[in-house]
């Protein structure tokens, strides 16, 4: 039985994962971490990760960016692998993820769905063929509770694209401050926030007289939760290092 600590257990994703794990004979949640403790949980919940002294094989994280520093320090000290799903991390936090992964296994992915991870590859192939003549723009659409923009997935798409382009493209988040035409070597971002949209992404290649678009829609949070649970099974017992969903899902 793989023992999980659920970081952010009383949030929307934490609750979907709790439901999936309840019906999985290979897994059990031995503790939850969340400052919001008003919910009934079938496992003990700690309002501060440093109060949690329960032994576990892996941590699944869906919380908030400000909670990630303590999480990484805790995981490093106790050598518990982390499936890190929270988005909106700062540059400094991303560096800490790299540093921490030298001492404990960390699988970080802005999107745990099979579809988006397949699209990462398809979009990279398209970039090789199209980038010379097409402008690249990314749109993400999410629910009105989301705090970070652009989405972690939108940024991950941009990073995948830029990897193919020798990291020569700059990211443009806001066109309102300057009156000038877009440059060739840029990736533009637009973020829509409203209602209960689970998560949509469009990667647009706009050329002369034609546009090619890649689109992904998540219809429920379960697509992310299932990916995170599969990742936790993969990561438990793994040596220190940086992992991502391409290690888990083989296309
Ligand atoms: N990687 C993916 O596939 C994926 C998918 C969905 C959401 N996300 C990301 O996961 C995060 C959570 O999403 P959500 O929709 O569940 O949000 P949510 O706001 O519903 O839940 C977050 C939970 O974290 C808790 N929290 C706050 N501070 C904490 C702390 N110090 N320690 C532990 N828990 C703390 C909150 O009380 C809340 O219950 C967001 O960053 C979101 O962008 C990632
Ligand atoms: O609901 C969210 O918040 C989501 N966040 C991730 C992101 O920022 O890309 C993945 C999709 C859902």
Automatic annotation (TrEMBL):
Residues 2-112 form the Dihydrodipicolinate reductase N-terminal domain. Homotetramer. This is 4-hydroxy-tetrahydrodipicolinate reductase. Keywords: Amino-acid biosynthesis, Cytoplasm, Diaminopimelate biosynthesis, Lysine biosynthesis, NAD, NADP, Oxidoreductase. GO terms for cellular component: cytosol. SUPFAM superfamilies: Glyceraldehyde-3-phosphate dehydrogenase-like, C-terminal domain, NAD(P)-binding Rossmann-fold domains. InterPro entries: DapB_C, DapB_N, DapB_N_CS, DHDPR_bac, NAD(P)-bd_dom_sf. Residues 115-249 form the Dihydrodipicolinate reductase C-terminal domain. The keyword NADP applies. NAD(+) binds at residues 8-13, 34, 85-87, 109-112. NCBIfam families: dapB. NADP(+) binds at residue 39. (S)-2,3,4,5-tetrahydrodipicolinate binds at residues 143, 152-153. Catalyzes the conversion of 4-hydroxy-tetrahydrodipicolinate (HTPA) to tetrahydrodipicolinate. HAMAP family: DapB. GO terms for biological process: diaminopimelate biosynthetic process; lysine biosynthetic process via diaminopimelate. GO terms for molecular function: 4-hydroxy-tetrahydrodipicolinate reductase; NAD binding; NADP binding; oxidoreductase activity, acting on CH or CH2 groups, NAD or NADP as acceptor.
């Amino acid at each position: 039985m793989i023992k999980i600590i659920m970081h952010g257990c009383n949030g929307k994703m934490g609750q979907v994962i709790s439901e999936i794990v309840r019906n999985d004979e290979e897994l059990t949640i031995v503790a939850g971490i969340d400052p919001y403790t008003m919910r009934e949980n079938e496992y003990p919940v700690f309002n501060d990760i440093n109060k949690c002294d329960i032994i576990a094989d892996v941590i699944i994280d869906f919380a908030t960016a400000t909670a990630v520093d303590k999480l990484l320090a805790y995981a490093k000290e106790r050598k518990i692998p982390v499936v890190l799903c929270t988005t909106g991390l700062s540059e400094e936090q991303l560096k800490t993820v790299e540093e921490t992964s030298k001492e404990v296994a960390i699988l970080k992915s802005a999107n745990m769905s099979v579809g988006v991870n397949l699209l990462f590859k398809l979009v990279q192939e398209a970039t090789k063929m199209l980038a010379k003549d097409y402008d690249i723009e990314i749109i993400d659409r999410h629910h009105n509770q989301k705090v970070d923009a652009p989405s972690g997935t939108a940024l991950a798409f941009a990073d995948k694209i830029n990897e193919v382009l020798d990291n020569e493209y700059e990211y443009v988040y806001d066109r309102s401050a300057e009156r000038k035409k877009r440059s060739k070597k840029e990736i533009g971002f637009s973020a829509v926030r409203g209602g209960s949209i689970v998560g949509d992404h469009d990667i647009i290649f706009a050329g002369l007289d034609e546009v090619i678009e890649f689109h992904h829609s998540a219809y429920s949070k379960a697509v992310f939760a299932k990916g995170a649970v599969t990742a936790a099974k993969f990561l438990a017992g793994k040596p220190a290092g940086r992992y991502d969903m391409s290690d888990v899902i083989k296309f």
